[in-house]
Amino acid sequence: MKKICVVTGSRAEYGLLRWVLEGINKSKLLDLQLIVTGMHLLPEFGLTVNSIEKDGFYIDKKIEMLLSSDTPVGITKSMGIGLIGFAEALNELKPDLLLVLGDRFEILTAANAALLARIPIAHIHGGESTTGAIDEAIRHSITKMSHIHFVASRTYKNRVIQLGEHPDSVYTVGGLGIDNFIKLNLLDKNSLEKEIEFKLKKINLLITFHPVTLENNTSKYQMRELLCSLTDLQETGLIFTMPNADTDSKVLFEMIQDFVQKNKNAKVFSSLGQLRYLSCIKYVDAVIGNSSSGLIEVPYLKKPTINIGDRQKGRLKADSVIECEPERLSINKAIKKALSNSFKTKIKDCINPYGDGGGSEKIVKIIEGYNLNNLLKKNFYNILQ
Q1: Residues 6+ apart with CB under 8 A from 232
Q2: Which domains does the chain have, with CATH numbers?
Q3: Residue 194, class by beta-carbon neighbours within 10 Å (0-12 exposed, 13-18 middle, 19+ buried)?
Q4: Helix, strand, coil proportions of the chain in percent (round to 5)?
Q5: Would you say 101 and 12 are in contact if contact means Cβ atoms under 8 Å apart?
Q6: What are the CA-CA distances from residue 21 to residues 57, 171, 272, 315 (Å)?
Q7: Which residue from 6, 122, 195, 367 puts its CA 20 to 30 A from 223's CA?
Q8: Could you tell me which residues are beta bridge partners of residue 4?
């Protein structure tokens, strides 16, 4: 059996990997090894490691790496700690393949350790572009360390090939988050309200806003502009999920908590978990912020997404996504458009560029049949002009 080691460091990433993990677990050809790290292990981010274990997955290694600092120096030190932990874990587990997803710094450390340990790497959701965040450079760096690539669209496949990866190693599988809508039984409205202890109003918004990591000292200003826009919506239900553990995230935590304390129509969650989060998407009128979920998963339900600023700039977007500047007037205008009947009617037939699901099964099937021998030495694939 092929030993497949999967790494997860955040709630969002685990939500995308959930059904890949399930498929590997059930496979007669694959043996799942699971490493949990990053935000999963911290109480302030909801201690989501408990959700992973509740889903029935055995965790082979827990790597604590995040320091209680959101400065560039603190995060860099966290990466150093993570590199040591991954080196030790991979040396003990000795997987045949490391499977990682996305573009967070925790995943970069795992890929670095695997590269030095001569362990082949398979990467999910490569080839995407987000010019407003350090994720862009991290994602492409992991691509160059990887040997098998599972991408969300043909556009992203072409970009991975442009980076010098052989076309035969790149597979278009679609966005993995869509599988959750297909496989999970979402909560009905009454059950959701009981689960989150929040009575939905006639109009509701789901808000997730992360720091824009390639901009200096803009997080506080941008969050202030967003909150000013939301202040006037006293009759609207506002459901916040906290930002990731990125540079300047702590000030956003404090601002959101202060806002929620002063506004009875708002509630905040460190982590909603996949079932509650996706159920919220089903019942809210729009999603607002700068999370990739608003671009990849939300369009599947034909819901409006208000995408603020440059954090996701460069990603493929459905017609249901409204772009706006991180300024209150622009945000106000976008909210008004998203809630209008004309826009809701317009997007009923919108096409999601990330597909209609099934990516998790495709990944498991490809890995089952893949010859993992002799992958380490790869040639740079030159595109003929």
Answers
A1: 332
A2: 2-177+357-369 (3.40.50.2000), 186-349 (3.40.50.2000)
A3: exposed
A4: 45, 15, 40
A5: no
A6: 8, 18, 20, 26
A7: 195
A8: 32, 97
Q: In angstroms, rounded to a whole number, what is the distance separating the alpha carbons of residues 150 and 172?
A: 6
What confidence score (pLDDT) does residue 70 get?
83
Phi and psi (nearest 5°) for 307? -100, 115
Could you say which DSSP state residue 183 is in?
A: H
Return the bridge partners of 313, or none. none
**β-pair type (2-8, 61-63):** unpaired
For 325, the enclosing helix (H) or strand (E) is none
Name every residue whose Cβ is closer than 8 Å to that of residue 231 and which is 6 or more positions away in sequence.
Answer: 259, 263
Crossing angle of helices 359-369 and 11-26, rounded to 10°: 50
Q: Residues 50, 51, 56, 60: is their CA dihedral positive or negative? A: negative
Query: Model confidence over 92-139: pLDDT tens digits?
Result: 999 999 999 999 999 999 999 999 999 999 999 999 998 877 889 999
Return the biggest CA–CA distance within the chain: 61
Q: What is the pTM of this model?
A: 0.91
Task: Check residue 248 and give left, alpha or beta (phi > 0: left; psi -120 to 50: alpha).
Answer: left
Quote the CA–CA distance of 292 and 287 in Å, as a whole number. 11
The distance from CA 57 to its chain's CA centroid, rounded to whole angstroms, is 20
- Residue at token pair 């369009």: 299
The pair of three-digit structure tokens given for residue 68, joined into one six-digit string: 């209680």
Task: Measure the CA–CA gap between 44 and 245, rounded to whole angstroms.
Answer: 10
